[in-house]
Amino acid sequence: MAGQRMRMPIDELRQLALDACLACGGSPAMAKALVDATLSAACFGRTELGFPHFVDYLNSLRDGRINGDAKPRFDHVLPALIHADADGGIAQLGFDLIYDDFVKCVKTFGISVLTQRNSYTAGELGYYVRRLAHDGLISIAAANGPALMAAAEGGERVYCTNPLAFGLPLPEPLPPVVIDQATSATAFITLAEAAKAQLPIAHGIAIDETGAITTDPVKAMLGALLPFGGYKGGNIALIVEMLSAGLSGAAWSLDAGHFLSGEHPVNAGMTVIALFPAAVRSDFPVRAKAQLERLRSKGVRIPGDRTMPASVTETDRLDVDVGVLETIRRFCLQ
C-alpha cells in the first residue's frame, strides 16, 4: 500500500475529513476551517501540507495539543490592526472567523494587519494569501512554530522553518500568484519522508546533534535544519520570528510546544499584512499579468507555472495517498 494513490471525489474527501476531525474532538467550525484549508493545499498549493499534514492535526486534536473547542478572541486595537488569540486552537479557525472583517478593513483603509497568537502551527501558509488574492488583495504572511532550525552550522535549534508567503491577484479566470517558502533550506517533512524511505538528503541542508553537516535524515531530525542561503536566510528567519511571534505575543520558537509530541499547545504566531491594490490602480491584475508574461518570455520561472486548475468543483477527483486515506478512516472510528 505504501506509495499507492487513488483518485477520490472531492465531496467524499471533504466528508471523510470532516468526520475524522469531529471524531478527534474538533468543533464543527474548526472542522470546516481545517478541511477547507487542507483541500486548498491539496488542490492548489503544497500537496504535502494537504492531507498528509492533516493527519498531524488529527493526532494533535486527539492528544490535546489542539483545543478542539477553541473560541478565538479578537481585539481591534486600531482601525487597521486586529489582534487575535486562537485560544489554543488552529490558526485557520481564527482566520475564518475574522476574515470578512479583515477584508473590509483592508478595502476601507487600503492596508490592514492581522496578527494572531496561541495557535497550532499554521499549516500551508499559502492558503491565507491565496484566499485574500481571490478577493483582489495583495498580502504577505509570516508564521513561526517550534524550533527546528539552527541559524548556522554548529548551532542549536533557535527557529522553526519560519515560512513567508506572498499572494497577488491576476485577472479571472487565472489563479493568483502564490509564493510560499520556508526560510529553512528544506521543509521538516522532507526529512521525515527521506527517513521513512531510507534515502539520503542533500548535503548542506541539515546538521546532526553535534552540529556537523549530515546527509542522514534520521540524524538530521535529531539535529537541526539549516537556513537557505547561509546567514541571509537566517536573517529572514529572524524577520519572520519578530513579525509572527514578536508582534502577536505568541511563544518564541525556542519556547513553543512541539507540534508532534507532548500535551502542551504549540502557541505559534502568524501575521498577515494585506493591501488593496485597486485603490491605487484598478488595472493592477492586468498590469501584473503583463509583467509576468514578459518575465516568463525571458526564462524567469514564475511560481505556480506548473499545471494547476484555477478552480475545482465538489465532483472533481483528487489524487490522494492510499495510506493517508486509511489513517484518516481509522480516526473516524475512534
TrEMBL record:
Presence of keyword Oxidoreductase: yes
Pfam family, one: Ldh_2
Keywords, alphabetical: Oxidoreductase
Transmembrane residue ranges: none
InterPro entries tied to this protein: Mal/L-sulf/L-lact_DH-like_ah (IPR043144), Mal/L-sulf/L-lact_DH-like_NADP (IPR043143), Mal/L-sulfo/L-lacto_DH-like_sf (IPR036111), Malate/L-lactate_DH-like (IPR003767)
Any one Gene Ontology molecular-function term assigned to this protein's record: oxidoreductase activity
Keyword Cell membrane set for record: no
Chain segments annotated as coiled-coil in the UniProt record: none
Similarity annotation: Belongs to the LDH2/MDH2 oxidoreductase family.
Protein name from the UniProt record: Malate dehydrogenase
